[in-house]
Structures are given as C-alpha cells and as structure tokens.
Amino acid sequence: MLIAQITDLHIDEPGGFMRRFVDANTKLERSIEYLHTRVDRPDAVLATGDLTNDGRPEQFDLLRALLERLEIPIYLIPGNHDEREVFRSVFSDCPWMPASGPIDYVIEDFPVRLVGMDTSEPGRHDGTLDDGQLAWLDATLSREPGKPTLIFLHHPPFLSGLWLFDAIRLEGSGGLRGVVQGHPQVTQIIAGHVHRPISYHWVQR
Which residues are CB-neighbours of 113 under 8 A, at least 6 positions away? Predict the structure, then answer.
C-alpha cells in the first residue's frame, strides 16, 4: 500500500495574510497534479492538520473546493490553526467524521489500518491527547491486533529540538507512547506541525 502525506496546507482567502508570502492554495493544486501524474499513484492521502491558516469557514470552503479535484481517497485531521467545529461542519458528509468530540476515527478499507487522532486544543496552539482519547485508541487497536496500523496526527509526539514548536508541543505524548508500545502492530506514526522532515524512533523499554 502506498500512502501520501500532505500537511500544513494553510489555505487562505485571496489577499489573506498567508498568501502575501506563500501561495499555499496554488501549492496544494500542484501537489494534487503531482499525485495524479505519478506512475505509482497512492492508495490514500493523509492530510495532517493546519489545513487552513485561520480556521474560518471561507478557508475551509476553499479547501473543500480544492480537494474536490483529488481522485484519491483523502483523510484529514485538524491542527492548531484549524477550528474543529467549522472543520466538522464543512466535512460533515464524510463517513469518517464523528458527530461530536475530538475528530478521532479509524479507516478499515485498506491493508493498513489508518487511525486519525485529533490533537487540536480549541483556542490554543499546543496539542493534547487526553485520557479519553488514549482509552479510545487502546480499545481501537485491541480490536485488530494482527493488522498493520498507521496513526496520523498533527502535533508530533516527541521534542523536535526546535524551540518554537516544542513550546507548543503535544501534551499526552507519554500516554500515547505507552498505548502504542502495547500494540506492536502499529508500524508508524506520522505528524505535521514542524514544517520540515524529521524522523524519530521510540526504543522499547
């Protein structure tokens, strides 16, 4: 199975603050074109948060319109720049969207299970995985112990060494590590937030 990740899209309205510096909307359009032209087209695309620059309904509407062009299944989670309830409203027709609470869900349609977890904290830029979410994850993973699983979220569950992003890091990363280490079928966790490629390995205790 081939999975593509796109992250920190920061979609903005014409004339918006972000687009004075980077035309993120055009970059998303080009990313979609690239995914379509690959010989080995991905089976799924994961968008790991900061989908919009400010979380406004107009930005989510623009995001939705841009993603309508994508011919590959895409699964999204919010980041610290997104407004959870606006996101839920604009994408309410997606079968994976929960009706309330954190936007945590599991996709069972592929050889690899895809588990999305919402680390956004309304009104804040740091992230959280609370006890209820960790219990949900533990129960979700327990249902399919033999199936390879990938978890995707916005805030990375480790310190990056970048002070700006570590100041708005993920609370609950220790709990996440404890859950994941009890479920060896989890082969990878991917995140966004830091705007650069970083890999990290959790050594078994």
Answer: 106, 107, 144, 147, 148, 149, 150, 185
